Amino acid sequence: MNNPPKILLVDDDEIQLQVIAHAIQSIAEYTVLTTTSPIVALQMAEKHEPDVILSDFYMPEEDGFSFCRKVKAHPRLRSAFFILLTSAATIEQRIRGFDIGADDYITKPFHAEELLARIRAAMRIKSLNDQLQQDKVKLSELYQELEADFMGVITLLTQLIGHRVPNASIRGERAAAMARWIGERLEMKEADIKLLEIAGRLHEIGKVNLPDEIIRKPLHQLTEGERSVISHFPLMGQAILEGIPRLNSVGTFLRHQMENFDGSGYPDRLAKDQIPLSSRILRSINFIESETAARNPGVETLIAAMNRSKATVLDPHIVQLMAEYLEVIENPTWREGKIQVSVYELKPGMIIAHDLTTGSGTKLLSNKAQISNSTLERILAHHQYDPILNNIYVYDA
Fold first, then answer.
1. Cβ contacts of 377 within 8 Å, gap of 6 or more
2. Of the four, 18, 57, 90, 291, which is 20 to 30 A from 352 by CA?
């Protein structure tokens, strides 16, 4: 059986307090708690957690505003419906009370029927708010369960790729890390970065349907015909993910992951901004994987290969960021003896630790060049209309 709703009455006038309590108890089945002290009232509220609090405004120990503020700041009491009783409240006072957290006012003198009607309304509102809060908790729990199920699907797909495609799990982890870092540098929204990260992890899923004799053969040993077969993996990847609504956009990224920046790629010959940004990032990852499949070139050799494919196969902006990732993020020792600065922290005399290049690919300074007053002015002026995307590193003096 449900416990009767609780009402806490606070009024320094003992007679007025008993009159209100009697009026409530004579008409409705409520548990009524009373006190003349707002200090004691807070202690009672903490113990009993009332549904509705009726508090006089003018009290010697503490006024109704102060008491209301404490109640609404309390994590277990803030949901209580708070009604202020006052004999005279200006519009300004009422507005202030509502701003503090009061839910309603009752002006003295009042009729018992009006008081009860207000309390019943307060109880209905409190009940609805409580139900809403419970529904929010349930929705949160359901969302967490769905999220866990979704991540379980991602894990399952990742394991499937790893079992079917040699070394795909390792490449997927690296691709996800690269994708997230570049997405953050491009200031993509977190939700988009998460999808991009998933795309990186699953970017080879279209290869699971390939014949064993192709899937297990090193890329550099594939015949022209076998390369033609394997080139369809982006479309296969999209087809596999079509049945998972939350991965539809990821499927689109996978479809276009082998499009070339100049429009010569596969499958739709999209070019430049026609290619989804996430797909352009995946294209650079696929390029790196292809370059490192048959050999292990040094970072400088790999970056040089990317630069040769800039604006034809790869997005020039992403090439710059990927070069920094390979040179700096994957090689922490590179930063020894160097410090990272913003373009506005550059000063004459500083020595650049790597090529200083703008977003369009214009090289402003070469590695180990020393900044002069004139070059600094040129860098700052150029940055206004053609920003430097990469982090800037200088040698630590």
1. none
2. 291
Are residues 347 and 322 part of one domain? no
Same domain for 228 and 362, yes or no, is no
Q: How many Å apart are CA 218 and CA 202, to the nearest integer?
A: 20
- Tens of pLDDT along 49-60? 999 999 988 888
109-123, 161-175, 258-272: which has the minimum mean pLDDT? 109-123
Q: How many CB atoms lie within 10 A of CB 114?
A: 11
Q: Are residues 207 and 309 in the same domain?
A: yes
Within a domain: 142: no
d(CA 55, CA 36): 10
Helices (H), 165-276: 168-185, 190-202, 212-215, 224-230, 233-241, 248-255
Provide the domain limits for residue 347: 337-397
- Alpha carbons 340 and 156: distance in angstroms, whole number: 40
- Measured in degrees and rounded to the nearest 5, phi and psi for residue 113 equal -65, -40
Task: Report the domain count for the chain.
Answer: 3
pLDDT above 70 as % of the chain: 98
Please, how many CA atoms are within 13 Å of residue 370, restricted to the half-sphere of its CB?
Answer: 4
6-10 and 52-56 beta bridge pairing: parallel
Q: What is the mean pLDDT of the chain?
A: 89
